[in-house]
Amino acid sequence: MQRVAKRLGFSRDGGSNALRASKITAVDFFDDLTSSYARKRFFGGFSVLIAVCILLTWVAEANFTWPIAKEIVVAVLIEIVAGSLIILAFYALYVYFIGANKAVREVNVTRPQDIGERMRALPLDVRYYMFWGRSGSFFRAYPLLELDRQARENKRNIAVDVLLPDPDDERLVKSYRDIMKSLGEDPGDNPLLPNVLATCMTCAILASNNKHLEIKVHLSQFLPAFRVDLSDNGAILTQDDKKKSALYFDYGSEFWDMFRSTVANERDVSRAVAWDKEAFAGLKLEEKSCNAQTLNSFGIKVDNVDAIQQEVARLITKRPHRYG
Question: Domain 110-317 - what CATH class?
């Protein structure tokens, strides 16, 4: 992990790098107001407030018998409605005409509630996608399927690089098991194995049945501290805990180039996964595609195929992930 940390620009003492990180990750107040989560909460909250005030106005008009009390209550409620409408109008104008100051921001701190939207935008209309993570659960559920769909419909060649931890490495298995325990989950003996096999299976099936989609999978000797999703639309760093924020990097920025080089360098020194396309031709992401032949096609040690088969089948068909 020290080697990974150095590659990603983090030092053990955290001195100057920590100071630099504190500068680039500071959340700008007005930029934060334009986030998807902020817009939903802002418009939703004030809309509910306006609706409640209108309802209370109707109740006061219909039920209050004391004229002075009715007049005061109705006047206050009307003022609240008018003020709320003015606030919403100014906020809508700000979001539409001004928005976030993207021209001077290379790094954006993304709220936990906005991570899913950011990640769903990354694979749209791109020719290259790169993923480095531990399980690839969300990658299997959306980006990979979206890239396959675009390649088919647009008949456009798309290249995908996938970097996963090697499930045959006991050190990585132990570390991943400890991470899952810290998240309150109950991992099995080798929680990496079914997830890596499921990602390899999904990649093999899609790539073998789509001539416009080229997927390369490599198994790394390191367990990354976070996930990296990178494309022509930018890059995002996320953590296992979905309550924590993410970092988003603009396409072509210094940090985007740094992470692209980091993942590419790690890929080049990792074990490549190869499969026979003919063995996966005609297969779909369904339970019957998981059998002894396909599960043993990736050069990954599988001691008990029957025990792992059902779990892999569940992961490629139901595709559970943290951003549902």
Answer: alpha beta
